[in-house]
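Work Package 3 (structural annotation) set out to generate three-dimensional models for the target panel prioritized at the project kickoff. During this period the team completed the workflow that converts sequence records into C-alpha cells, so that structures can be stored uniformly alongside our sequence database. As a representative example, we reproduce one entry of 124 residues exactly as it appears in the project archive.
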Amino acid sequence: QIAKYNYYPGWHQQSTSNELLINMDKWNELPDNYQAMLETACTASVAQMIADGEASQFQAMIDNEANGVKNLTWPDEVIGEFRSKWDEVLQEELAASEDLQRVWDSFTSFDEKYQVWGARGYLK
C-alpha cells in the first residue's frame, strides 16, 4: 500500500545466513553420532531454506505486480554508485577492525578461487 516500486537485486542483503553456535568444549563432549545428527540437521535446514526462499520469490513479485507495485532492476549507474559507497565504508571499517580485515581477506581469497568456476559454470 505504500511502496509502488520494488528494485532488484536487493543490494541490502545478497544472501541469508543461519547459524548454530555451540560452545566448543560442549561440542567436543557430544558423542560423534550426536555431532553428526546436528550437522545433518543444519545442512538440511539450510537446503530447505534455500529451496523455500527461491520457490517463494516469484509469487511475491507476481502478487506485488497484481497490487500495482512495479518490479524494476537497478540501473547500472546506480549499482555503480552503491559499489563505490560500499567500498568507501568497507575501507573505513577494515582500517578500524583487525577481525574484519581477517574475515575480509579470507572471503576475498575464497571468492577469487571460486571465480574459476563461478565465471564459467552458468549461462549468463
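The chain has a mean pLDDT of 93.
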